[in-house]
Every structure is written in C-alpha cells, then in structure tokens.
Amino acid sequence: MTDRQLADLAYEMLQFSYVPYSKFPVGAALLCADGTVYTGCNVENAAYGSTICAERTALVKAVSEGHRDDFVRLAVVGLSSDYCWPCGACRQMLYEFAPNLELLVGRGDRQFTKLTLADLLPHGFGPKALN
Ligand code: THU
C-alpha cells in the first residue's frame, strides 16, 4: 500500500462524514502491519461534545477488531486549504497504541505531508507513564 493509496482511502471516506453542524468533513485510513486498513469519518452529534473525529473512528474500529500494537501509518484528510492536523484528543488516543505512528496529513487539493505522531505529540503521556 503506497502512501498515495492510503491517503486516497481517507479521501474516499469524506463522503460518509456526518457533519451537519461544522460542515467540515474529515476522513481517515489506518494501516496495520498485516495490510489491513481501517477507515473512518467524523460523526457529529446535536450534543456537540459527543462528536467523534475521523481518526478516532478508525482507531476504535481497529481496536474493537483485535488490533492493538501493529499500527503502521494513518492518513487523515480534509477539504480545507491547510492540512487537516489531528486534534489533541486524537493525538492522545493514537499515542496510547502507536507512539511511533507515521502520519499522512492531507488538504483539500489532495496533497499530503508526511510526519510522525511524535512530531505532533512530543513527550506524550502513555501507558508506560503509569508503570
Ligand atoms: N475533526 C476530526 O474529525 N479530526 C480532527 O482531528 C479534527 C477535527 C472533526 C470534528 C468535527 O466534526 C469537525 O472536524 C470540526 O471540528
């Protein structure tokens, strides 16, 4: 799976975003070491705080199907002119399972940039901190 293919899977998910409030669709695609990809979109709620982001949708789909420690790369994309940077809550949730995760972050012209979760969340608080 190339980076472009993973990013394109995330762009495909924009059509499923449920965004009546923000009108800001976000798509995600999470690649596991065995080649499995879990996709996600943002799903908003009339009680705004109950909204779930696209990345967390993909993550909880993967974890709920038995994946925990084999996450390789995540694409997260939006339609804005700037890259769709993952929010703080998503960075934290991803850090729990994949502190070394690679990220592809895309924008509306379908260009994406590549970096790591550690770039976005240095000195993260994770399971090891509780030992
Ligand atoms: N959103 C995501 O899906 N992922 C992020 O990391 C940033 C924000 C969604 C949540 C909400 O539905 C919309 O973008 C506007 O905040």
Structural class: alpha+beta
| Proportion in β-strands | 15-25%
Task: List the bound ligands.
Answer: tetrahydrodeoxyuridine
How far is the first residue's CA from the last residue's CA?
36 Å
- Extract low-pLDDT stretches: none
Spatial order of the strands forming the largest sheet: 2-1-3-4-5
Radius of gyration: 14 Å
How is the biggest beta sheet arranged?
Answer: 5 strands, mixed
Percent range of helical residues: 25-40%
Please give the oligomerization state of what you see.
single chain
Question: How would you describe this protein?
Answer:
The chain is an alpha+beta fold and 131 residues long. Helices cover 26% and strands 23% of the residues. The chain is built from 4 helices and 5 strands. It has helices spanning 3-12, 54-63, 88-97, 117-120, and strands at residues 26-32, 37-41, 71-78, 102-106, 112-116. It has a 5-stranded mixed β-sheet with strand order 2-1-3-4-5, with helices on both faces. The radius of gyration is 14 Å and the shape is globular. The mean pLDDT is 98. Bound molecules: tetrahydrodeoxyuridine. Tetrahydrodeoxyuridine (THU) binds at residues 19, 22, 24, 26, 42, 44, 51, 53-55, 86-87, 90.
Helices and strands, with pairings:
Blueprint (H helix, E strand, L loop, with lengths): L2 H10 L13 E7 L4 E5 L12 H10 L7 E8 L9 H10 L4 E5 L5 E5 H4 L11
Parallel strand pairs: 3-4
Antiparallel strand pairs: 1-2, 1-3, 4-5
The protein binds tetrahydrodeoxyuridine.
Please describe the structure with a list of short key phrases separated by commas or semicolons.
binds tetrahydrodeoxyuridine, 131 residues, single chain, alpha+beta
